[in-house]
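FAQ

Q: What does a record look like?
A: Structure on top, sequence underneath. For example:
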């Protein structure tokens, strides 16, 4: 499904004066990925990739953040794709507001194996606007839709791989909630994600992620409400019957 990801990037239409740098981080694949990337990057200076063994997903993400350039940083997984051709234009427009440090939007989950032109929406994550106590009520933005200014990573650090699949949650607690990062909600679907993420592969994986969620609060020296970690999965229940407006 890498081609869906790459095609959705290549089709983005952005305003004059805005440039996009695509940097792919590959963990030393031997399944034909490199051949796809070589064709994708050929004679295009704004498309780069590197391939070498790494110590897991979040180490790859951290190195990608360090290796690429750009004022605004977004992360798109190989199995995901941008919902339409205007996603990065909307993001660029949002960042014209110098008072914000980041943006996020809505996300859909599609059935694993579906391509981006023919898919079934399985869940719809309507993020909603962020308010101060939202994290303590179990809220979080869909991480694949989050874009931040580069200095956010410089000021608050990157992902802590010791939290496993909860590393994105810990980072958002640290950088968005604890630091009161000013974020702007874009009320549109920005990313389509295939089902089967790291934290949802099994009951054991979900329980481990919940344990790491709790540890994220503790190690950041912030106290959740008694119901925070219970509400985190419960808030996701409407995703199964809500659908985005067409």
């Amino acid at each position: 499904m890498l081609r869906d990801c790459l095609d959705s990037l290549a089709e983005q239409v952005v305003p004059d004066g805005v440039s996009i740098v695509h940097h792919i981080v590959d963990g030393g694949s031997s399944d034909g990925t490199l051949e796809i990337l070589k064709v994708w990057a050929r004679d295009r200076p704004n498309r780069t990739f590197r391939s070498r063994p790494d110590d897991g997903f979040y180490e790859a993400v951290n190195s990608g953040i360090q290796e690429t350039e750009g004022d605004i940083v977004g992360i798109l997984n190989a199995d995901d794709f941008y919902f339409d051709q205007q996603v990065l234009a909307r993001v660029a427009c949002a960042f014209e507001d110098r008072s914000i440090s980041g943006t996020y939007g809505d996300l859909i989950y599609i059935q694993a194996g579906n391509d981006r032109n023919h898919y079934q929406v399985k869940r719809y994550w309507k993020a909603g606007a962020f308010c101060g106590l939202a994290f303590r009520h179990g809220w979080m933005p869909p991480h694949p839709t989050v874009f931040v200014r580069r200095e956010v990573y410089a000021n608050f650090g990157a992902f802590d791989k010791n939290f496993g699949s909860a590393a994105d949650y810990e980072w958002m607690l640290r950088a968005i909630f604890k630091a009161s990062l000013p974020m702007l909600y874009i009320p549109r679907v920005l990313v389509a994600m295939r089902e089967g993420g790291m934290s949802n592969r099994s009951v054991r994986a979900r329980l481990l992620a919940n344990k790491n969620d709790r540890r994220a609060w503790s190690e950041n020296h912030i106290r959740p409400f008694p119901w925070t970690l219970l509400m985190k999965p419960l808030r996701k229940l409407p995703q199964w019957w809500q659908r985005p407006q067409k």
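Q: Is there anything notable about this one?
A: The radius of gyration is 18 Å.
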